[in-house]
Amino acid sequence: GPRTIGSNVLVCSKNKAADLELSASRQSIRRIEDQERHQDQLIVTNHPIISEMERLYRPERWMIGSSSPAHLLTLNYSHSRYQRIERLLSEKMPKTPEDALRVLADNEVCNETTVKSDVFDPANLTVHCAIRKDGEGPPAAKGNLVAVRFFPEGL
To answer: At residue 118, what are phi and psi to the nearest 5 degrees?
Structure first.
């Protein structure tokens, strides 16, 4: 059926990754190999990065009733987080999922509303997840990673 909300859907294989940016009426794809920088890392924040999708983003439609501070729901804030991640990756590329989580835990990237942070490791068919439980405790990126292996018995 038709979509009613926007979202990001991450897909990957052992050597490729893409972010499908979806709205209720449109979709766009951002491939890892299309990036100018960090061609072995695909950075995704909560909001669209592709300009045609940004024009469709209307946080005021779902902000009503949200307990999140309004500035955390803006494209400007999401872009600043994205740019901070790019800077941190330029300074030092993570070698382990724990290193990558430290990037996501940076105070300019992570905030009190962060409930989930993921680090994908397609070469090993694994996603490492940090999840904030029941809305309590520190933001997710400041917690522990849990590894989820796809096809644990092999392909």
So the answer is: -125, 145
